[in-house]
Amino acid sequence: MGLTEWAYSLSEAMLSEPLPRRWAHSLGVAKCARSLRPIVGDDAELLEAAAVLHDVGYSPAIAATGFHPLDGARFLRDQMGTDERVIRLVAHHSCALLEAEERGLREELETEFQLEHPDLVDALIYCDMTTTPDGTRTTPGERLDEIVKRYGPETIVGRFIQRAAPEIHAAVRRVEQRVAQVSVGSQPM
Q1: Cβ distance 91 to 99 under 8 Å?
Q2: CA–CA separation, 160 vs 155, rounded Å?
Q3: Which of 21, 39, 91, 175 has the fewest Cβ atoms within 10 Å of its own Cβ atom?
Q4: DSSP codes of every residue in 40-98
């Protein structure tokens, strides 16, 4: 079984029944990751696997700290022996260090999991922040607004996502620029 096939199977087992909306979101994020194959090249399978697994830490079966990037990464490392780069992307997806700081877990996250290559980090931010909770495409602005409304502006998640918004928008712009460059380069002359 290949990495992405395995990742889909695991994510489905962990999320589809207890959290069907989270599973739908994960499928949408993975679909977006597939669309970025032209800019991620040899890391396409890695990105798609991380995309479908990025929210596995929400699974009630493994949630320990209540901080899903850390819970998911620890589960993937300690119980599943997952590829280290996938684990790092899950641990640090969508500006997780800022949320870890809000939760008093930044040192743990930084110590346990190194950052992955910035282009892949940007790509996963792009996929997550352009996908609704139901798995459909959206704009980063709409996604950020939805998160703040769902959690509330003064909650840990609300505060974190507002702090992360400039970096999220910057990451999305960087990915869009890379996609545009590839698209221009592939047009016939």
Answers
A1: no
A2: 8
A3: 21
A4: HGGGHHHHHHHHHHTTGGG-TTT-SSS-HHHHHHHHHHHTT---HHHHHHHHTTTTHHH
| Measured distance CA(55)–CA(53) in Å, rounded | 6
Each of the 189 residues of the chain gets a pLDDT tens digit; together they read: 799 999 999 999 999 999 999 999 999 999 999 999 999 999 999 999 999 999 999 999 999 999 999 999 999 999 999 999 999 999 999 999 999 999 999 999 999 999 999 999 999 999 999 999 999 999 999 999 999 999 999 999 999 999 999 999 999 999 999 999 988 766 554
This prediction has a pTM of 0.95
Sign of CA dihedral 103, 27, 30, 50: positive
Reading the block at residue 13, the tokens are 């087992």
